[in-house]
Amino acid sequence: MKIKDLEFKKFITADRIEKKVAALAKHIDKDYKDKSPVFLPVLNGSFMFAADLLKEVTIPCRVSFVKISSYAGTASTGQLKSLIGHDESLFGTDIIIVEDIVDTGLTLQKVSDELKGLGAKSVEAVSLLRKQPAREKNIDIKYIGFELEQEFVVGYGLDYDGLGRNLKDIYSRVG
Ligand code: IMP
Known about the structure:
single chain; 175 residues; alpha/beta; Rossmann fold; four-stranded antiparallel beta sheet; 4 helices; 26% helix; 30% strand; binds inosinic acid
């Protein structure tokens, strides 16, 4: 499959994603059974994962979308804008950040630091995908779906220059 100038092949099927998402939700349900967490999906990439995950979560919870971006094309610019979209009511809450993918971990660290600064009671993260740099740097992610190496992926919310977010399977770049 081609998106603009790049070739992609199917990498993680929708069926495997569905099973993994259900397992992650079950784990969260168990850990937070006496709590009422606030899920904070980081837009845009996590919209599809967040929707599917939250349909499987059964504990009482709230959802509030936030936005931040560190990417242009296929390489991290390392430049972070600040977190937008959250509200003051996060003080004293148990927060679960919802990420599509953690690569360098810069985005997650930024979001996590800002939330701790806002007085959240606890801040944990769930990410569908984790790349090798985050693994090497020991970035703190409590719930992880799939481990990747360095491959660039699209689909299931993830994009290449804005395209491919609507695909229900995850594709990796060929070559
Ligand atoms: P980090 O700050 O380097 O961890 O990058 C996290 C963000 O970069 C993710 O939320 C994605 O939006 C984007 N990103 C990282 N790797 C990929 C990829 O392989 N495909 C699409 N987007 C990616």
